[in-house]
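Section 5.1 Outputs to date
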Amino acid sequence: MRRIRAWFFRMAGLFHKDAADRELAVEMESHLQLHIEDNLRAGMNAEQARRQALIKLGGLEQTKEASPDRRGLSVLETFLQDLRFAARMLHKNPGVTVIVVLTLALGVGANTAIFGLVNGLLLQRLPVPAPEQIAALVIQSGDSSLGALGFSYPQFVEFREQTAPFCEVFGQALGRVDLTADSHTDLLAVSGVSRNYFLTLGLRPALGRLILPGEGEHPGEPAIVVLGYSFWRKRFGGDPSVIGKQVRVDGKPATVVGVAPKEFRGQFAGIELDAYLPLSTEFRDASSASFWNTRDHHVMLSLGRLKTGVTLAQAQIRFDLISQRLATQYPASDKGISVRVMDERLARPIPYANGAFIMFSAVFLILGALVLLIACTNIANILMARASVRQREMAIRAALGGARSRLVRQMLTETILIALFGGFAGVLLGAWLSRLMGFIHLSGFPIQLGFGFDWRVFAYALAAVLFTAVFAGLSPALRATRADVNTVLHQGGRTDAVGSARHKVRGDLMAAQVAGSLTLLIVGGLFVRSLRAVERMDLGFDPNHLLNVRLDPSLNNYSETETNEFYRSLEARIRSLPAVQSASLASSVPVEYADGKQSVYIEGRPVLAGQRAPGVLFNNVDPTYFETLRAPILSGRAFSDADDQSSQRVSIVNETMARHFWPGQSPIGKRFSLVSDAGPFIEIVGVARNGKYRNVTEDPLPYLYLPLAQNFTAERVLQIRSSIPPESLISEVQREILALDRNAVIEDIQTMHQSLNGALGYFMFRLGASLAAAMGLLGLLLAIVGVYGVVSYAATQRTQELGIRMALGASPRQILALLLKQGARLVAAGLLFGLAGAWALTRAMTHMLVGVSPSDPLTYLSVAALLSFVTLLACWIPARRAMRVDPMVALRYE
């Protein structure tokens, strides 16, 4: 109780500090006078007596003895004193403070932005109850030609029923629909979900209800829609009366039954879904019959909630057994297929990313750490130089009785305070950079890359700040307080001698900056060269001066005949525009999200029992498609107007399909079926050049083209080649469409280059090149500042020595060479270690680069030459200034 009472009064004393300080000063002065009198009686003169008394009473332990009633709060009070003193010192040196804060802000900001992206895409769990029980179910196939697979609906049902005792399987199929409400149509990114989707996730609606367990998987059920929270707020202004509203989904009536919870944006990291539909609403057309019945229609992506106590390893064993059983039961469709059970976060951003984004994230986290290390070394160099200037101050404080631990703590407090300022500015910069990333679109799917900050991001930023404070501040503090008091006081204003340990440390830090900067620049150079290689890649068509317009007349209840007539009239109108060179129609455009794969049965080669028919990508196009896209026909012919419903069914295949199915032969005249070994058969009339179909980095894939006249689709893309920039045609094209039908819905209109800049095109390469180049340039800037600072400080410290050398006959050129030699030696060491570090880091980038080797000699040599030039220039400027110093002025220095 006495201690508690004493603490209470001492704490209260902090709020009456002025009075307490006056009382303490009076008491300390009386103690001081007593010690002075004792020293005078011992034979000391007045000055010595007072100095010895101050030394005896100046330390922390003596202060505690002299003021026992303040013992309990001494640490807190000294910390507050250190904090106030640190603030005064930072205020007295605004130039140093601003430089350190800006340097640290750049380092922490870059790291915070990158970690925020990684955190949002990979680390944050789904906002559902018990998210640790959610596992991703990833289909793996022994047939590499099939690429990534989802579940077919029959497979999904089998796994859901057979895994019920230990795992609740639920799934969805991504898609796009047109939603018409209040005479306005929007193109929505939607997810067709299974009946147990929301129940298994444990979600509650923000408004209305969600999809119930008993509905949504029976074709012909009434169509319903659950709106995403963000879309509801944006499109309907958060109006609660939207529940029960009658809307049209792809031209057919549907009812809005609820709004998803605010925090839930879908199960795929980064994809902002606008609405959720039952499977029976998304797949309700006659053309979707294959979804419900065909085991080869792989469109469902699935997750599972493991029952309590079931581990991933245990679930994997049971899924393997079920996969083997289904392969035996359905050999034609399930042989060679297995299901991998993994942590849901490791399958992001989609379950078939195969860990590529994890590697991408790891590389950029390493690059961000390098930026922070360069910033830290820069700050350490600044603080080291500042500590040299403050040696005399530290020596005087030590002579007055200050303990070394007290002095170190004082300097560390200054470093921590300035690091906190820099960290705060860095977090603000990181938040701004995160917002810059914003949103992109993956052919209708809005991809969100700007994530809000949570505790992980702030903890990461705080850890970066504390690391900087300790890394950059501890060594200068220890060195500033390690010097011998008598030596420092005897030297007066002079600080470090050339060749001292402190000079060596600053040189080592400078070399480390150069090494880190070189590594960053090489990685950035490789990403930039990879982007250039991708942009120059042969796409199989000419993307310049192309405009894509997506339309779907069925939304206005057009029949097949009316749809065909609408498109014929539209093509005629568009071709009549002065700047239009050609126009064509297709069911899809190259390099966009599309699920267009068909099983192919080659005439005369029946599929063996237990084997799977090979799958091939396809597109439905009209006769002018190849002319408009400038996609060459290598042999045979293009489609013609005669290829209609009354004629022989025909197709055009690409080079890869021709070589794969008819090696060493001409495929012209060969036949295949898309239905079965028995036909009906389609005759090949031409071979087209290979191109890019799903993404710009894919390997050559088998591909076939079918005539639109023989394969009706209502939704089509009108592609227009113009002699002027295609953007200038948009308003004219819109007028022509509305002139045909003022209620026509234009789902999307953009140039081919805009389409290619999407997520399946150049976006990831541009993002990687932009981030890597920005961090490389940031590292270069920090290295230049660090090199300049070290050489400039070294030249300043050697001013007197240089004056003596010039007085003894050294020429300015010799002085310049002397200083440049010192800087060049450190730059060379940094380049050597930087090349080794870059080579080691780029080993992990093999699968992230296209068209350039991770060991590309041109990149290594050009970046090394650039860095050598700018760093030697940073050495030359202070060296040239030093050689112009008047010898008489130099001799009087200090």
